[in-house]
Amino acid sequence: MTTSSTPTRTLRTARRSVAVVNGYVVPVASDPIEGGTVLIEDGVITAVGADVVVPDGVPTLDARGRWVLPGFVEAHAHMGVMEEAEGWAGNDTNEMTDPNGAALRAIDAINVEDEGFRDALVGGVTSAVVKPGSGNPIGGQTVAIKTWGGRTVDEQVIREAVSVKSALGENPKRVYGDQKKTPSTRLGVAKVIRAAFVDAQNYAAKRDAAEAKGEPFDRDLAKETLARVLAGELYWDQHTHRADDIATALRLADEFGYRLVVNHGTDGAAVADVLAERDVPVIFGPLFTSRSKIELRNRDIANLAALARAGVRVAITTDHPVVPINFLVHQASLAVKEGLDRDTALRALTVNPAAFLGLDHRVGSLAPGLDGDVVVWSGDPLDVTSRAEHVLITGTEVYTWDAEANDGRGAGRVVERGERFRA
Q: If we measure between CA atoms, which residue out of 328, 347, 344 comes closest to residue 336?
């Protein structure tokens, strides 16, 4: 299949119909299908199976001898807010002037021209949750987006407000300790988070009382956001590596009753049974890093398998650009090498991250009703020699492997915003 000569301007208006046929279809959430078809109509999957009838006029992409999977979901990335090769001018990851950044929103800093978005396609990643950094105890709101297709980031949004990013451990205490202000210790970091939630509880009570009486009420953006966390509308994405910090994350979640998702959890194997008992999911990683700080002392790829064996639901993250996002699948491959069940590895790239953050009604599997985000691989994606040959987002082919297109940055063709370009 070749892409249309009409430039892809926006996913919202360029939802295509196409059938991916004759492939080894791996829906992930259901059994693989030999010689299967994935039918996408108006950007949405309408049928998956071995005997799907392709309607007249629907173009086909022949995946014979290829593996067909859902696009991968990167559950913790900084693409667009931490632009590569731009230095300070492109780094909007942390607003480190107020420990409580709940009113901040990652979407307001995303540059869709960041090279990381092109890298995502090369690695078969079609969705990402972009988050503020870990410099603050409360970093701000995250956003789930497609990795390509919009003239602006708004046209790539899957869900505008997914969670609030929070950080425990070394990063926030270092940032504010250097400024000689609270929080400069783990005690202080937990206090900032606890105090912010108490303020949000008081705020919500006063707001609700005012609304019941029909009285005016002054809004506070930070408290309003945290009230949404307390109401269960937003997840709490907790940056934490060390086991003792994970224990603090659980303690705070118990106190305030929010929906906790552990991010990183590289020392989580030490408390795997505790996480499993409480059914707290872990977005694990990144895996390709050095032990660059004390809280990473126990970082080990094998810890992911230990978490999964204990019954913890896991996803995998590159923390892009800490690890390039196109290496997401390679992290899964090495995790399998270190003991992770291969089916769990595929779920950790697809259905799990989608479910952890409330996106599984749109992405994460190949099933009727979900977005037509499909990747055709040359072979088993967990084989490091396999590559993504065709990447479709809502039925539009946005990336095609082409060895002759190599210009020193990797071979392939991306449907550019406004024109085709060789990447």
A: 344
